[in-house]
Design goal:
Layout lengths: L3 E2 L8 H20 L18 H7 L8 E18 L2 E7 L5 E7 H4 L1 H10 L5 E10 L5 E12 L14 H6 L1 H7 L1 H23 L3 E2 L5 E2 L11 E4 L4 E5 L4 H9 L4 E9 L11 E10 L3 H20 L3 E3 L5 E3 L5 E4 H9 L9 H11 L8 H12 L8 E7 L15 E9 L2 E8 L4 H16 L10 H8 L5 E7 H9 L3 H4 L7
Parallel strand pairs: 4-6, 7-11, 15-16
Antiparallel strand pairs: 1-2, 2-3, 2-5, 3-4, 5-6, 8-10, 9-10, 11-12, 12-19, 13-14, 16-17, 17-18, 18-19
Helix pairs in contact: 6-7, 7-9, 7-15, 10-12, 11-12, 13-14
């Protein structure tokens, strides 16, 4: 194999890739013929005794040009290779990005084995090496190889990683992104830390994690357009879950008074920097609290997750910006903040005609029969972009929130908040509507909107209403996008925080 490395200066053409693949396939055939290096191109197991990170941690104090006297067997992907006569050098990389040098010498492995290494090993191959842990004359931690085998033959060459992979390649071929880019590997680890932190915070507060159906006979729990499918077994139309809310509330009715779920949701809507048709969602419900208590819980969940990832409430985004998630977050009124922004008092009694005038003046296109929709669109236009620090936006229009309890002191408003971080909505929380009679009235109004052609309106769910009729205690509930939580902590876009995002 010629001297080469993973970050070669030129990108191979499609023709060159095809030629390289043919050469690699021939090497695969040689390996599988059994004449060289028993075990073939894809052995079922190898005598691995240590990982690259373990060896690096264990022998961190080894001096320059020093021998440890200890032997290990480890495996990794070849990301650099240099063959110089009687001594070959290779850099092996583990899945977490840790690297170690392998030294394959004539004196240690013999003439036939060295010749096979030069002829059969390519960049991208997984190889197993066994030998003594040493440091080179330059002080680089290395394995002086006494035995080696192919662990998995790569028949396609790795892309040119000298330059950064394009966003399209990173998204469509995440496996290459994970090989090449530290940030991609860190994103996976950060997501795992966040999920573990969320579960730990809930456990500390006595919450129970449950699972609810992804396939539902009736979509509900949010205003969103569903994906529709068909069950052959039941010969009926089914919907992919847009939210787990109505099932989690059934659990509260049944006595699971602190309940949460981390789940996959599906909404047949647009995709952009903050939206994905398939996304991870956290929802939680707590009996005997309200939207203030659930806001406190949400703040703790996010702050604990920040600490899990960065070690403090101040997180460092991918671009180097620091963002402070600490302290008690501001809570502002939707109506008051909108009034201040437009220079006149806006209330639930503001006439629809005036709301339309304000929308027209701002160049906002709203085609909706509910005045609350105009209020929300006006607020997003005038106020949302100015919310840089974490902020709870409180008290929404009643007519746009069919699952929320009416405000205890402000007519025409419900006890709902949206949490904004970095200028986008991260979470929402309610004082839950538990009166089955009022809930039925709200569903009937939603059904009218659906009949009028609104694809996001909720359907009347008789089974959920029946559950409420058995009595649901006063409760607070919240929902938060896991992907967006990672966006808030890392500063990345949604397609970076999802390991395998949906792409056309």
């Amino acid at each position: 194999m010629a001297d080469t490395q993973i970050d070669a200066a030129t990108e191979p053409t499609a023709e060159e890739i095809s030629e390289q693949k043919a050469v690699r396939l021939a090497k695969r055939d040689r390996l599988n013929d059994g004449a060289e290096l028993g075990g073939g191109a894809y052995p079922v197991s190898l005598p691995v005794t240590a990982t690259i990170p373990e060896v690096r941690d264990r022998f961190i104090g080894l001096g320059v040009d020093e021998q440890s006297g200890e032997r290990v067997g480890l495996a990794g992907r070849v990301v650099f290779s240099r063959n110089t006569g009687k001594l070959c050098f290779a850099t092996l990389q583990s899945g977490d990005g840790s690297r170690i040098q392998a030294m394959v010498s004539l004196a240690s492995v013999g003439e036939e084995s060295l010749k096979a290494w030069k002829e059969l090993v390519d960049l991208g191959d997984h190889v197993f090496v066994e030998g003594e842990v040493i440091t080179s004359r330059r002080g680089e931690l290395s394995i002086m190889v006494s035995e080696w085998r192919i662990a998995a033959k790569a028949v396609l060459p790795l892309p040119n990683l000298h330059n950064e992979l394009s966003e399209e390649t990173r998204v469509r071929s995440r496996y290459l992104d994970l090989i090449a880019r530290e940030q991609a590997r860190r994103n996976v680890l950060d997501r795992a830390k966040v999920n573990a932190s969320l579960r730990a915070t809930f456990a500390g507060r006595g919450f129970i994690e449950v699972e609810t159906p992804m396939l539902q006979v009736m979509h509900g729990g949010a205003s969103a357009r569903p994906f529709v499918t068909h069950s052959n077994a039941f010969d009926t139309e089914l919907y992919l879950r847009i939210a787990p809310e109505l099932y989690l509330k059934r659990a509260v009715v049944g006595g699971i008074e602190r309940v949460f779920e981390i789940n996959r949701n599906f909404r047949n809507e647009g995709a952009d920097s903050t939206h994905s048709p398939e996304f991870a969602m956290l929802e939680a419900y707590q009996a005997y609290t309200d939207y203030h208590g659930i806001a406190d819980l949400t703040q703790q969940l996010i702050q604990d997750a920040a600490v899990a990832v960065s070690g403090s409430h101040v997180v460092a985004w991918a671009d180097g910006t620091e963002y402070d998630l600490g302290g008690d977050w501001a809570r502002i009124s939707m109506y008051d903040s909108l009034s201040e922004a437009v220079g006149e008092q806006i209330t639930p009694e503001t006439p629809m005609a005036r709301l339309k005038e304000l929308a027209d003046a701002a160049g906002i296109e709203v085609d909706h029969p509910l005045p609350g929709k105009y209020v929300e669109e006006l607020w997003e236009h005038h106020v949302k972009a100015h919310l840089v620090a974490p902020t709870f936006v409180m008290d929404f229009p009643l007519d746009t929130s069919p699952l929320v309890r009416w405000h205890r002191s402000i007519p025409g408003v419900v006890e709902k908040w949206d949490l904004y971080i970095r200028g986008f909505e991260l979470a929402t929380g309610y004082s839950e509507l538990v009166d089955p009679v009022v809930q039925r009235e709200r569903f009937v109004e939603q059904a009218k909107l659906a009949a009028g052609g609104d694809p996001e309106a909720m359907r009347l769910d008789e089974e959920f209403l029946r559950a409420l009729e058995f009595g649901m205690p006063p409760s607070g509930g919240m929902g938060m996008g896991i992907d967006r939580l990672l966006m808030a902590i890392t500063g990345l876009g949604i397609r970076e925080t999802i390991l395998f995002p949906l792409v056309k």
